[in-house]
């Protein structure tokens, strides 16, 4: 597998406050906030020194991250890997013991590219994105 780190997903309660705080740390917005109606979250991408973070904020109580927000509060919660061999790498990860949390679906904040979330007891949550 030739996986490349795309971003670190950072769970935040209030996205505008988080953007302001990350800007004070020297991050700049690379993509304005986008609403993902599939997952019911607001997403903003920021970057500093070549590192990309994805701020993810629940937009409703039924958001896919609402439960995580209650448990973890504001914190990093996944690493996203980009791959040119999405289907093959997805199947390899599953056969290697990663469990798919959802099915591959388009991500509005990533220009509709397909993503899938997986988890592993030894690694935690990852996201796989089609190049």
Radius of gyration: 14 Å
Q: Classify the oligomer.
A: single chain
**What is the terminal-to-terminal distance?**
13 Å
Percent of residues in beta strands? over 45%
Short description:
By secondary structure, the protein is of the alpha+beta class. It is 21% helix and 47% strand. The mean pLDDT is 96.
Description:
The longest helix is centred in the first third of the chain and has 10 residues. The mean pLDDT is 96. A hairpin with a 5-residue loop joins strand 7 and strand 8. The chain is 21% helix and 47% strand. The chain is globular and about 40 Å long. With 131 residues, the protein is α+β, with helices and mostly antiparallel strands. Strands 1, 2, 3, 4, 5, 6, 7, 8 and 9 form a nine-stranded mixed sheet that branches. The protein has three helices and nine strands; from the N terminus they run βαβββαβαββββ.
Task: Compile the SSE list and pairings.
Blueprint (H helix, E strand, L loop, with lengths): L3 E8 L3 H10 L3 E9 L4 E8 L2 E8 L7 H7 L2 E9 L2 H10 L3 E2 L4 E3 L5 E8 L3 E7 L1
Short descriptors:
alpha+beta, 9-stranded mixed sheet, 3 helices, 47% strand
